[in-house]
Structure to design on (592 residues):
C-alpha cells in the first residue's frame, strides 16, 4: 500500500564520543524513507536548497523511494543541524541550526501522490503539516511524531490516527508522569493509537480500545550515533503496516517490533551507514531474536 | 526446595506523594519472605530489638515462613529507616537511619537451616554476609543484591551464583554505561547469572553462557510506595526457582517474570499491604497478562 512521508532533509554535523561526522546526510524524512523502504515503496516529499551536495538517486539507489516530491529550490538553502551527544549518549545538544527551506512554504505534494493511504508527518511546524495533509485525498492511516498541534489545543484540525512521541513529550502533553496514564489521557484527546518511545528503555503502544503492548529496546551493544533513531523506528513501523495494509492491534505490535529492530541498526553507525549496510534478512533475523529474548 | 533469606527487618517511616506510613513493617528480608512465600516455604534469618512492635506470627499468618531464625535481642533496638520519595517517585532520599542490630554480630543460622539449598543474601555488610553464608553447608544457588564485596575486589570470597543489582550499581561496578556490556563484565568477574533491575524500565538477565533476556516492568498505573520493590522482585524470583528446584535459563526467565509481577503488586500500596491483599491466583493472572502484553 502507498506510503508517503514528509519531513526534513538535512545536512547534519554530528559529534558523539565515537567520532564526528561532518556535513553528512540527515533529516527525519530521509531516515524514515530509508528505514521504510525495507518493507514498502516510499513517496518522499521534502525540499532542499541548491547547496545540497547529495545525489539522492545514488543515496537511495536500489530502493523503491519515489523522489517526485523532492523539491530543489534554486534560491534556497538546505536545512542544517549541528548536534553533539554527551559521553553516555543519553543527552543531545543542538549546537547550531539553520532552518533555511524549513522556514519557507511547505513542499507541494505531487498530484500522483494524493491517493497515498499511509502517511507519516515528521516533526515540523503545525501549519505546514496541515497544509501538507490537506493535499492528500483520503489517507487511511496518518501517523505523526509531532505534538505541537496538540499542545496548542487544536488536535481536531489535524486528523492523526497515531501519535508517536517520546516519554518527555508524553508527560508534558498529558501533564501526567505515569506513562500508562499519560497514554490514556492522550487517547482521550483524540488519537486512535499512541506510541511512547522511551529510548533505551523501549516503547509503549496503546490504543483507544484499551489494548496495551510494552516492548524493551533491542539490547544493542553497538551505539555510535543515536541520530535518526526515532525516524528509523517510525519508518520500520509504518513500512511494515503499509506493506501489509493492516492497522489492527496485532499488526501494530509487530510493526513496533520492526521499528525497534530497524532503529537498533540505525544507531550502530553514523548517518545512514547503519541502515545502508544491512538487508531485509538482517532485519528479520533480529526481529526473531528480539522475540526470543523477551519470551518466557 | 528449601529457601533461606537473611537481611534486614525494619521499622520504616515512608513518605510518598500518596501519604505517610509511620513506623510500619519494613526490611529487605521481610519483603522478600512475604513475596517468596507465594511460591515456596521460607526460612527467615534476622534480628530485631526488644522495641520491635510487630507480632511476626500474625504478620505472616497463613504463610509458610519459618521464624526459627528470627532473633529478638533484649538489649538491642530494631533497625529504623525513614525515607521520602520525590513527586514522581523516581528518587528516594534517606532522611534518617538507625542501624541498631544491623551494626552488631549477624544472626545465627539455626542448625536445622544449614541444609538450605536456595539462599538469598539481602544487602548488608559484606563481612556479615560471609559469616552467614559460611553457616550453610552446601547451598545450590546463592543470590545476592549486594555488590560491596565485588567493588572491594574480593568476589571469590563470597560464592555467589546470581547477582541482582540495579542499573546504577551495574554501571559503577563494571565502569561501563552500556548495560549489556556491563552485565558481560560482571559475569567475567565470576557470577554465573546477573540480573540488572532498571525500575520502571524493567530488567535484564544474562548468564555466563551468553544467554540474554530482557523484560519490561509490568505497566502499573497504581504506584503508592516503591519501598521493597527490589526485595519483592527477588522474593518472587527466588521463590519460583525454589518451588521448582531449577536454575536453567528457561526457569530463570520465568522467575524474573514472576519477580516483576510480585514487585508490581508490592508497590501498589504502603508497607506489606500490596502483598497481603493478593493471592497466588492474582499473581498467575498478572503473569499471563504480562506475557500477553509483551508478545508480538
Amino acid at each position: 500500500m502507498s506510503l508517503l512521508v514528509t519531513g526534513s532533509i538535512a545536512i547534519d554535523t554530528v559529534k558523539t564520543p565515537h567520532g564526528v561526522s561532518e556535513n553528512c546526510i540527515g533529516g527525519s524524512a530521509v531516515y524514515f524513507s530509508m528505514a521504510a523502504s525495507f518493507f514498502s515503496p516510499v513517496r518522499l516529499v521534502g525540499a532542499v536548497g541548491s547547496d545540497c551536495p547529495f545525489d539522492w538517486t545514488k543515496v537511495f539507489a536500489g530502493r523503491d523511494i519515489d523522489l517526485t516530491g523532492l523539491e530543489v529550490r534554486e534560491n534556497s538553502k538546505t536545512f542544517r543541524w549541528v548536534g553533539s551527544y554527551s559521553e553516555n549518549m543519553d543527552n543531545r545538544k543542538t549546537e547550531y541550526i539553520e532552518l533555511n527551506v524549513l522556514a519557507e512554504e511547505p513542499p507541494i505534494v505531487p498530484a500522483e501522490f494524493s491517493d497515498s493511504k499511509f502517511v507519516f508527518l515528521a516533526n515540523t511546524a503545525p501549519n505546514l503539516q496541515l497544509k501538507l495533509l490537506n493535499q492528500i485525498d483520503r489517507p487511511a492511516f496518518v501517523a505523526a511524531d509531532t505534538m505541537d498541534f496538540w499542545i496548542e489545543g487544536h488536535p481536531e484540525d489535524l486528523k492523526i490516527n497515531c501519535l508517536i512521541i517520546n516519554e518527555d513529550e508524553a508527560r508534558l502533553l498529558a501533564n501526567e508522569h505515569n506513562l500508562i496514564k499519560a497514554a490514556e489521557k492522550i487517547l482521550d484527546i483524540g488519537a486512535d493509537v499512541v506510541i511512547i518511545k522511551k529510548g533505551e528503555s523501549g516503547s509503549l503502544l496503546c490504543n483507544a480500545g484499551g489494548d496495551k503492548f510494552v516492548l524493551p529496546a533491542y539490547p544493542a551493544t553497538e551505539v555510535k550515533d543515536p541520530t535518526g533513531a526515532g525516524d528509523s523506528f517510525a519508518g520500520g513501523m509504518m513500512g511494515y503496516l503499509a506493506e501489509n495494509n493492516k492497522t489492527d492491534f496485532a499488526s501494530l505490535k509487530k510493526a513496533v517490533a520492526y521499528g525497534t529492530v530497524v532503529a537498533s541498526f540505525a544507531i550502530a553507525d553514523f548517518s545512514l551507514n547503519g541502515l545502508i549496510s544491512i538487508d531485509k534478512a538482517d532485519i528479520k533475523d533480529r526481529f526473531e531474536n528480539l522475540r526470543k529474548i523477551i519470551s518466557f
User: Anything to note?
Assistant: Chain B touches chain A at residues 87-88, 177-181, 198, 200-202, 204, 212-216, 219-221, 223, 250, 253-254, 256-257, 291, 293-296 (CB under 8 Å). The longest strand of chain B covers residues 65-73. Residues 200 and 219 of chain B are 8 Å apart (CA to CA).
